[in-house]
Amino acid sequence: MKPPARLTRRQEAAWEAFWSAYPRREGKAAAREVFAALTADAGPAGGVDPDFLARAARRYADQCGERRLDVMYIAHAKTWLRQRRFEDEVFADPAEPKAPPLAEPDDVWWPMFVAAGMDRSTYDRWIRPCRIEIGPDGGAVEIRAPSPFHAEWLSTRLDHVIRRALGRMPDIEVMP
C-alpha cells in the first residue's frame, strides 16, 4: 500500500478544509494524492494555491446544495481535482482587477453579487444589462433580461449565484 502524500502544514490545513467542505466524501486517499500533486510548489511560479482549492470546494458544495443534486451527480473529489473543475468560472475566485473597480451611483447590486462570489466581468456581462426590480412589499424580485437567451443563461447557469446574492428576497424570476 502506498503511503499517504506528504503535505506541508499549509497544505495539510487546506486539505482538511477542502475535504470537510467537499460535498461527496469518497476516495479520500486518491483525492489527497491529486491535491498534493496540484498544490506542490504552490506560488507565483507554479502549483495551485491550496487555500483556493478549499474555497472552490465550498462554492461547489454550495452549488450542489442549492441545486439539490443527488450524490450520484456529484463528482468524486479525485475527478473534480484531476479534471481541474475548480477552474470553471463558477468556482473561480473573483479576478484581481488591474485597477480597483469604482462603484457607480446606479451600481447598487454589485456589492451583493461580489459577496456571493461573482467576479466583475461576469457581473458586467450578465447582470449589469438586466433591470432588477424590488416589489412594493420589498420581497419580490424580478430580473428583466435583454433577450430570451440572456434570460435562459441567467436561469440555468447563474441561478445559484443570483439566489445567493439576493437570498433574502424569496422569489426570483428571470423575465425576457
Automatic annotation (TrEMBL):
Gene3D superfamilies: 3.30.300.180. It comes from the Bacteria. InterPro entries: DnaA_N_sf. This is DnaA N-terminal domain-containing protein. It comes from Roseospira navarrensis.
